[in-house]
């Protein structure tokens, strides 16, 4: 069992689910989500209240796999913040490092979901989750984690630098899944990779960091910065290396997508949960893919997260 500190967002997710009014409309080469006229009233088939955010989703994944998970995130003193704490307490996540941000509401996403095709549009008020500079890297001395799992901190490179440097000095390993704001700071991001043990990005994100058109080219350039690199490519699967072995992998299962929210979080945290449990590189990639597949089969970013005892079947994966 490992102790893992997740740093990332904590959000309240409100789903508006409908089977026809939210169907995508094609306009030329673009797709506009929802056939809704301005000023009209639309009856929605179903409403669902969930919690999400990269910090929340990853922490839940770790505890379900049998690890100790600590979440460092920001919420507010409101009903949405209470819902997040209640969910995390029920899952067994340590919430003692969650902070309350004055003058902001808890981050909330309104997710318009087409239940027929699984398409979605997300309207997000980030609120308290826009702030990360209140986090103190010296808290790592108190948390004493084995691993630091970091999703986006909205481009706060100073906070990332403080935590990565501190973790490195302590011998704490780091898995990093950067967001668009970090990727926009390419030079600063690449400098931080010297502290990172595992990097997870998708193909488009990798292309923002290094040159290359194919997965193989992108992997070749990124492995010069980080020992273990995983690049996902949607329905095409992905590619990964740990410096010793390299694999191309496909989908764990080709299923109907109910809700893609949290798929990336499930893959990344699923991989780390498996690898620190002693699974080899190949098996950890399979678990990550299975975890992601299970999440997109349900509505909500973490309802489908697997336990470490999940019975998995074979999937397309090839050593190269």
Notable characteristics:
single chain, 320 residues, alpha/beta, UDP-N-acetylmuramoyl-L-alanine:D-glutamate ligase, four-stranded mixed sheet, 10 helices, 25% strand
Describe this structure in words.
- This protein has 320 residues and is an alpha/beta fold.
- It has a single domain (3-22, 46-319), classed as Ribokinase (UDP-N-acetylmuramoyl-L-alanine:D-glutamate ligase, 3-Layer(aba) Sandwich), CATH 3.40.1190.
- Helices cover 30% and strands 25% of the residues.
- The protein is built from ten helices and 17 strands.
- The strands form four sheets. The chain has a nine-stranded mixed β-sheet, with helices on both faces. A four-stranded mixed β-sheet has the order 5-2-9-10.
- The mean pLDDT is 95.
Give the overall shape, derived from the CA principal axes: globular
Helix content: 25-40%
Tell me the structural class.
Answer: alpha/beta
Percentage of residues in strands: 15-25%
CATH topology: UDP-N-acetylmuramoyl-L-alanine:D-glutamate ligase
- Count of domains: 1
CATH architecture: 3-Layer(aba) Sandwich
**Count of DSSP strands:** 17
The low-confidence runs, each spanning 5 or more residues with pLDDT under 50, are none
The CATH top-level class label: Alpha Beta
């Amino acid at each position: 069992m490992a102790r893992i500190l997740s740093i990332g967002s904590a959000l309240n997710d409100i789903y508006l689910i409908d089977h026809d009014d939210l169907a995508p409309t094609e306009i030329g080469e673009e797709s506009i989500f929802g056939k809704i006229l301005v000023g009209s009233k639309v009856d929605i088939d179903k409403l669902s209240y969930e919690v999400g955010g990269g910090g929340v989703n990853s922490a839940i994944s770790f505890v379900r796999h049998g690890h100790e998970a600590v979440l460092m995130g920001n919420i507010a003193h409101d009903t949405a913040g209470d819902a997040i704490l209640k969910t995390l307490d029920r899952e067994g996540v340590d919430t003692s490092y969650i902070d309350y941000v004055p003058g902001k509401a808890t981050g909330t996403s309104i997710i318009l979901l087409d239940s027929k095709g699984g398409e979605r549009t997300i309207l997000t008020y980030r609120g308290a989750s826009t702030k990360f500079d209140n986090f103190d890297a010296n808290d790592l001395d108190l948390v004493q984690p084995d691993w630091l799992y970091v999703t986006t901190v909205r481009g706060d490179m100073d906070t990332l630098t403080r935590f990565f440097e501190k973790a490195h000095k302590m011998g704490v390993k780091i898995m990093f899944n950067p967001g668009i704001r970090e990727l926009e700071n390419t030079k600063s991001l690449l400098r931080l990779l010297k502290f990172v043990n595992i990097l997870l990005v998708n193909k488009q994100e990798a292309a923002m960091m290094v040159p290359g058109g194919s997965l193989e080219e992108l992997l070749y350039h990124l492995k010069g910065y980080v020992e273990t690199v995983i690049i996902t490519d949607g329905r095409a699967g992905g590619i990964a290396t740990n410096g010793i072995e390299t694999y191309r992998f496909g989908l764990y299962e080709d299923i109907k997508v109910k809700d893609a929210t949290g798929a990336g979080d499930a893959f990344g945290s699923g991989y780390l949960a498996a690898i620190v449990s002693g699974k080899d590189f190949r098996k950890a990639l399979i678990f990550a893919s299975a975890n992601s597949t299970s999440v997109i089969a349900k509505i909500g970013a973490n309802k489908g997260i697997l336990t470490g005892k999940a019975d998995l079947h074979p999937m397309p994966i090839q050593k190269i």
